[in-house]
Protein backbone atom coordinates (compact mmCIF):
# COMPACT_ATOMS: atom_id res chain seq x y z
CA UNK A 1 0.00 0.00 0.00
CA UNK A 2 1.09 3.56 -0.58
CA UNK A 3 0.39 6.96 0.91
CA UNK A 4 -3.27 7.83 0.39
CA UNK A 5 -4.49 4.26 -0.23
CA UNK A 6 -7.47 2.92 1.69
CA UNK A 7 -5.87 0.14 3.72
CA UNK A 8 -8.61 -1.15 5.97
CA UNK A 9 -12.32 -0.79 6.72
CA UNK A 10 -13.68 -1.42 10.21
CA UNK A 11 -17.33 -2.35 10.63
CA UNK A 12 -18.89 -1.79 14.07
CA UNK A 13 -20.91 -4.77 15.28
CA UNK A 14 -22.79 -5.67 18.45
CA UNK A 15 -22.74 -9.46 17.96
CA UNK A 16 -19.52 -10.90 16.49
CA UNK A 17 -20.94 -14.35 15.71
CA UNK A 18 -23.98 -12.90 13.95
CA UNK A 19 -21.85 -10.41 11.98
CA UNK A 20 -19.36 -13.10 10.98
CA UNK A 21 -22.14 -15.33 9.66
CA UNK A 22 -23.81 -12.40 7.90
CA UNK A 23 -20.75 -11.05 6.06
CA UNK A 24 -19.12 -14.38 5.25
CA UNK A 25 -22.40 -15.74 3.91
CA UNK A 26 -23.42 -12.61 2.02
CA UNK A 27 -20.09 -11.61 0.45
CA UNK A 28 -17.91 -14.71 0.79
CA UNK A 29 -15.51 -12.90 3.12
CA UNK A 30 -12.95 -14.99 5.00
CA UNK A 31 -13.28 -13.82 8.62
CA UNK A 32 -10.89 -14.98 11.35
CA UNK A 33 -9.13 -13.78 14.47
CA UNK A 34 -5.39 -13.24 14.14
CA UNK A 35 -2.91 -13.93 16.97
CA UNK A 36 -2.58 -10.81 19.06
CA UNK A 37 -5.92 -9.41 17.86
CA UNK A 38 -8.36 -11.62 19.78
CA UNK A 39 -11.88 -10.21 19.92
CA UNK A 40 -11.24 -8.29 16.68
CA UNK A 41 -11.78 -10.69 13.77
CA UNK A 42 -10.31 -9.54 10.48
CA UNK A 43 -12.15 -9.93 7.18
CA UNK A 44 -10.64 -10.47 3.74
CA UNK A 45 -12.62 -10.09 0.53
CA UNK A 46 -12.37 -12.76 -2.19
CA UNK A 47 -10.05 -10.43 -4.17
CA UNK A 48 -7.44 -10.87 -1.39
CA UNK A 49 -6.93 -7.08 -1.46
CA UNK A 50 -9.88 -5.51 0.34
CA UNK A 51 -10.14 -6.17 4.04
CA UNK A 52 -10.74 -4.84 7.49
CA UNK A 53 -12.08 -5.82 10.85
CA UNK A 54 -15.27 -6.41 12.77
CA UNK A 55 -14.92 -4.14 15.78
CA UNK A 56 -17.09 -3.79 18.87
CA UNK A 57 -19.71 -1.09 18.42
CA UNK A 58 -19.62 1.73 20.98
CA UNK A 59 -20.89 5.30 21.38
CA UNK A 60 -17.94 6.69 19.41
CA UNK A 61 -18.00 4.04 16.70
CA UNK A 62 -21.39 3.52 15.13
CA UNK A 63 -20.67 3.62 11.37
CA UNK A 64 -18.07 1.85 9.19
CA UNK A 65 -14.73 3.64 9.13
CA UNK A 66 -12.14 3.59 6.35
CA UNK A 67 -8.44 3.89 7.16
CA UNK A 68 -6.04 5.76 4.90
CA UNK A 69 -2.32 4.99 4.86
CA UNK A 70 -0.16 8.03 5.60
CA UNK A 71 3.57 8.56 5.89
CA UNK A 72 3.19 10.32 9.25
CA UNK A 73 0.09 10.41 11.44
CA UNK A 74 1.54 13.36 13.36
CA UNK A 75 2.04 15.42 10.17
CA UNK A 76 -1.37 14.42 8.83
CA UNK A 77 -3.09 15.52 12.05
CA UNK A 78 -1.36 18.92 11.89
CA UNK A 79 -2.44 19.32 8.25
CA UNK A 80 -6.02 18.17 8.99
CA UNK A 81 -6.39 20.62 11.86
CA UNK A 82 -4.97 23.44 9.71
CA UNK A 83 -7.58 22.59 7.07
CA UNK A 84 -10.48 22.75 9.54
CA UNK A 85 -10.54 19.16 10.77
CA UNK A 86 -10.13 17.80 14.28
CA UNK A 87 -8.95 14.66 16.08
CA UNK A 88 -11.43 12.05 17.34
CA UNK A 89 -8.78 9.53 18.54
CA UNK A 90 -5.17 10.40 19.20
CA UNK A 91 -2.35 8.38 17.69
CA UNK A 92 -2.01 4.96 19.35
CA UNK A 93 0.19 1.95 18.61
CA UNK A 94 -1.14 -1.16 16.88
CA UNK A 95 2.16 -3.06 16.88
CA UNK A 96 5.78 -2.01 17.38
CA UNK A 97 5.88 -0.90 13.75
CA UNK A 98 2.42 0.59 13.20
CA UNK A 99 -0.05 3.08 14.65
CA UNK A 100 -3.52 4.47 14.06
CA UNK A 101 -5.59 7.57 14.80
CA UNK A 102 -8.94 9.02 13.73
CA UNK A 103 -9.51 12.50 12.37
CA UNK A 104 -12.78 14.29 11.67
CA UNK A 105 -13.21 16.28 8.46
CA UNK A 106 -15.04 19.65 8.40
CA UNK A 107 -18.31 17.81 7.60
CA UNK A 108 -18.05 15.55 10.65
CA UNK A 109 -16.89 12.38 8.83
CA UNK A 110 -14.53 10.17 10.81
CA UNK A 111 -11.52 8.97 8.80
CA UNK A 112 -9.00 6.52 10.21
CA UNK A 113 -5.26 7.00 9.69
CA UNK A 114 -2.76 4.14 9.46
CA UNK A 115 1.02 4.48 9.61
CA UNK A 116 3.64 1.76 9.40
CA UNK A 117 3.74 -1.96 8.80
CA UNK A 118 1.59 -4.41 10.79
CA UNK A 119 3.72 -7.21 12.13
CA UNK A 120 6.85 -6.18 10.53
From TrEMBL:
Q: What is this protein called?
A: VOC family protein
Species of origin reads Microbacterium istanbulense
Which ranges of the sequence are coiled-coil? none
The stretch of residues making up the signal peptide is none
Q: Where is the VOC domain?
A: 5-116
Q: Which Gene3D superfamilies match?
A: 2,3-Dihydroxybiphenyl 1,2-Dioxygenase, domain 1
Q: Which Pfam families match?
A: Ble-like_N
Amino acid sequence: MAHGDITHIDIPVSDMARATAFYSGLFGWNIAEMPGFEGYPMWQAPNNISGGGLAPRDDGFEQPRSYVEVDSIDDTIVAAEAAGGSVARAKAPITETSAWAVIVDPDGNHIGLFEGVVGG
